Amino acid sequence: MSTATKPIIARLPVYQFASRWTMSEAPRACAVLGIETSCDETAAAVVRRHPSGLAEIVSETLLSQVEDHRPYQGVVPEIAARAHLEHLDGLIDRTMTEAGLTFRDLDAIAATAGPGLIGGVMVGATTGKAIAAATGKPFVAVNHLEGHALSVRMTDDVAFPYLLLLVSGGHCQLLLVRGVGHYSKLGATIDDAVGEAFDKVARFLDLGYPGGPAVETAAARAGDPDRFSLPRPLRGRTGCNFSFSGLKTAVFNHIRALDRLPSPAEADDMAAAFQKAVVDVLLERTRAGLSMARTEEPHLAALVVAGGVAANRPIRTALKSLATEEGIVLVAPPIRYCTDNAAMIAWTGAERLARGMTDSLDFAPRPRWPLDSLKNSA
Ligand code: KG4
Ligand code: ZN
Question: How far apart are CA 298 and CA 293, in angstroms?
Answer without folding.
Answer: 8
